[in-house]
Design goal:
By secondary structure, this protein is α+β, with helices and mostly antiparallel strands. It is 35% helix and 17% strand. It has a domain of 111 residues: 2-Layer Sandwich (Ribosomal Protein S8, Chain: A, domain 1). α5 crosses α6. The longest helix has 17 residues. The relative contact order is 0.15. Pfam families: Smr. InterPro entries: Smr_dom (IPR002625), Smr_dom_sf (IPR036063).
């Protein structure tokens, strides 16, 4: 059995049949009710969370991986086997870099990257520098190797470590180590305290 209530619509509002006893009872119950002011009403619509653009994150990771790898031009312009590296932030005294080259700073920690590939080496270098900064270490040594086994491509880690260190704001200067400390296969790195 189907129950129907006569309903009349006028200008978008619902008008109930006044003769119905249920309608009269409903109106009596609602006699004191006042509408809630619009500004005090809760917004009950479900809000959808903003979509997470997965492809954008994948693209960003791919770009970062690409930036971490040296290009053929960088190998051509970059470090050769046996070539010394040196870098100082603008504004750093020349005397500080000279002292670093002479090995006058105490090396407080060391990271050896022998046998590492580029991606794990990048993480190791970043973690190492972050830890050294937390421990307030001033001068550290990073051994990247001379790249003698990279016959065709040249010293891969030497080139990328050079680039990574130049990009970090917490690295004040770096240079190839003295021969007793690894020579052109290692770097003294001076960190901001």
């Amino acid at each position: 059995m189907r129950c129907t209530i006569p309903v009349y619509e006028r200008l978008g509002s619902v008008r109930l049949n006044q003769d119905d006893p249920d309608t009269a009872l409903f109106r009596a119950a609602m006699a004191d009710v006042r509408p809630i002011p619009t500004r005090q009403r809760a917004d009950l619509r479900r809000r959808r969370p903003a979509p997470i653009p997965g492809q954008r994150y994948a693209d960003d990771r791919a770009v970062l991986r690409e930036l971490a790898m040296p290009t053929a031009e960088e190998h051509a312009l970059g470090a050769e086997v046996g070539e010394a590296l040196a870098y100082a932030r603008p504004g750093l005294k020349k005397q500080t870099l000279r002292r670093l080259r002479r090995g006058e700073f105490s090396v407080m920690a060391e990271l050896d990257l022998h046998g590492q590939t580029v991606e794990p080496a990048r993480r190791l270098v970043a973690d190492f520098i972050n830890e050294c900064r937390e421990r307030r270490l001033g001068c550290v040594r990073i051994i990247h190797g001379k790249g003698r086994r990279s016959a065709n491509t040249g010293p891969v880690l030497k080139v990328v470590v050079d680039r990574w260190l130049r990009q970090r704001d917490d690295v004040l200067a770096f240079c190839s180590a003295r021969p007793v400390d690894g020579g052109t296969g290692a770097l003294y790195v001076l960190l901001r305290r």
